[in-house]
Design brief:
- The termini are far apart.
- The chain is of the alpha+beta class.
- A hairpin with an 8-residue loop joins strand 13 and strand 14.
- It has one domain: Metallo-beta-lactamase, Chain A (4-Layer Sandwich), CATH 3.60.15.10.
- The chain has an 8-stranded mixed sheet with strand order 1-2-3-4-5-8-10-11, covered by helices on one side. Strands 12-13-14-15-16-17 form a 6-stranded mixed sheet. Strands 7-6-9 form a 3-stranded antiparallel sheet.
- Helix content is 24%, strand content 25%.
- Helix 1 runs parallel beside helix 2 and helix 4 crosses helix 6.
């Protein structure tokens, strides 16, 4: 199935023949989104769905999310949960929009799940942006414990805490697939930054090593890919064996101190994500829109940057 700007690839995991993974690359933010299904029952989850946002016009649209919903309808899936790996700083989550729409498509709406440490992240950024408690408390239906197990139809899944990029970061081990968000990218990208509040390079290294201690053929599905214009194929996953041998930040001949040094050096050169402020204000709300102002306008705050201006 192809839609302009989006491609899906269906993968049937060899050691778990009932697990089907559909991946979708959203090119504006370089984000991977996933539908993971139990083929025998048609029960499924959606991981890290994206809501489209144009910063030039401050306009939210739903093309990407609607495409995922069309795939769900076409395949006859029943979505049990919408899973977030963390509070993203580079795209707005479509979880709440999709929860509402899926509630109209199936017998009951899916729960929105995220790691339990999201509460600390919400409190930090709510103070930073002045978001009222009523707008973020209780917006997630399921706060997942470390190593908590759940089922997608007949398929066992486990929530795996992978801190370092953010403190709340969770991965999801489903069959012989693990969906790791921003904790590990494909080999040419290496690892995500660790300089956000609550991030830590040493912790990120240890999370990476825990992933590389999984069996060789487990597929590590990443949260992002930023291919150059001349790169025709986007790679949503690599095996543990491939990552162990070739990941430019986390391969086995790089030790913790080396990783911390290169990660800190790299992070010092990075600008903040393009949608940092919009994404975090929406994502601590679980993708819900801000409440209207007294004038009836929904507002997001964008900090001013003063280049040594004084008056």
């Amino acid at each position: 199935m192809i839609l302009r700007g989006y491609a899906t690839l269906e993968n049937v995991a060899t050691s778990n023949p009932g697990v089907v993974v559909h991946n979708f690359h959203e090119p504006s933010t370089g984000s991977w989104q996933y539908i993971v299904a139990d083929d025998s029952t048609k029960n499924a989850v959606i991981i890290d769905p994206v809501l489209d946002y144009d910063p030039a016009t401050a306009t939210i649209t739903t093309k990407t999310a609607d495409f995922l919903l069309a795939v769900v309808k076409d395949r006859g899936y029943n979505i049990q949960m919408l899973l977030e790996t963390h509070a993203h700083a580079d795209h707005i989550t479509a979880a709440n929009y999709m929860k509402v729409k899926l509630g109209q498509m199936q017998s009951m709406p899916p729960a929105v799940g995220i790691g339990k440490r999201i509460m600390g992240v919400q409190e930090y950024w709510a103070r930073h942006f002045g978001v009222a408690e009523e707008e973020y408390q209780g917006v997630f239906d399921k706060l997942l414990e470390d190593d908590e197990t759940f089922h997608i139809g007949s398929v066992k899944a486990t929530a795996v805490h992978l801190p370092g990029h953010t403190p709340d970061h969770m991965g999801y081990l489903i069959g012989d697939n693990i969906f790791v968000g921003d904790s590990m990218f494909n080999a040419d990208l290496g690892s995500a930054r660790a300089d956000f509040p609550g991030g830590d390079a040493r912790t990120l290294f240890r999370s990476g090593r825990s992933l590389l201690n999984l069996p060789d053929d487990v597929k590590i599905w990443s949260g992002h890919d930023y291919p150059p214009e001349d790169k025709q194929e986007r790679a949503p996953y690599m095996t543990v064996r491939e990552q162990r041998e070739t990941n430019k930040h986390l391969k086995m001949d790089i030790d913790e101190d080396q990783f911390v040094a290169l990660r800190k050096k790299r992070d010092a050169t990075l600008d903040e994500p393009r949608l940092l402020h919009q994404a975090l204000q929406m994502n601590i709300r679980g993708g819900r829109l801000p409440l209207p102002s007294p004038a009836g306008v929904r507002m997001l705050q964008i900090p001013l940057k003063l280049d040594h201006c004084q008056w």
